[in-house]
Amino acid sequence: MWDVGMVNRARILAALLLLACGCEKYTTSGSGQSTLHKRVLYDFRVIHPPPTANRWSEAQGRALFAWRKSNRASCLSEPVSYVHSIEGSLIGPDKKEVGYLMSGGCLSQVAGTNALVVFDGDNLIDVYPVRADQLLLAADVDADGTDEIVTDEIGIGSGITRVSASLIRLEGNKLRLIEEFGVGREDTCGSQVVPRAITAAVIYYLPPSTTEKVHFSAEVYRAECPKESSAPVFTRVEGK
Questions:
Q1: What is the pTM of this model?
Q2: Which domain holds residue 175?
């Protein structure tokens, strides 16, 4: 169902950075679907608490320990930290699995990554290295019955906070990167940058038809830094 080559990554990344108005008309696909049918994948104007499923059971804890004993025996003394979790049809249609984002304990042996630990009930499916600080959303973007996962990475420095977004999918014993969306939210309110502002994207997708692939687009909004305890007021500056 996927054809990354058809995803206009350049337009999405440009939309996340440019401030000039891009007033483009809506287009119509060969199947008759207009971009007016696009759906919101994620709205970075709003800071959402990450979705959280139930904490793991004792049986899941024993299964994870057994996996670590078999695959990471040298790291059994190192603590494992639970970040949060997400629930969805992560492996295939018609089922629900839980994915736990975890760190430590050598769960991931890829530098700079956390681990996505996936359970079907009390059965451990697999442990995937994932470059993510949060699991934001599980959604069946390509309409095949299996959910994709929106993740983010958060970078903080010099009073600037940047949140970058990606879309991933689990395929067997591998994690597949579907799309990198670039910067979803940038907050310069704590920096010396002038003018200080919050820039945030709303990422959309156009569901596939029988002959076409998923198409992504973005709108970018900007807000002045709000006063304490006030919410930012965003105005659209780019995208369609």
A1: 0.83
A2: 4-239
